[in-house]
Amino acid sequence: MQTRGAIVRQAPGKYEVVDLDLDDPRSDELQVKMVASGMCHSDDHIATGDIPVGVYPMAGGHEGAGIVTKAGNNSKGIKEGDHVVFSFLPSCGHCRWCAQGMQNLCDLGAGILAGPRWTDPTSYRLHLAGTDTPVGQMCGISTFLETTVVSADSAVKVPDDIPLDVACLVGCGVGTGWGSAVNSANVQPGHTVIIMGIGGIGINAVQGAAHAGASNVIAVDPVAFKREKAQELGATHAVETMEEATELAKQFTNGQGADSTIVTVGVIKSEHVGQAMGSIRKAGTCVVTALGNMTDVGVPISLADLTLSQKRLQGALFGASNPNWDILRQLQLYREGVLKLDELVTKTYKLDDIGQGYQDMHDGKNIRGVIKYDA
Question: Do 263 and 295 have their domain in common?
Answer without folding.
Answer: yes
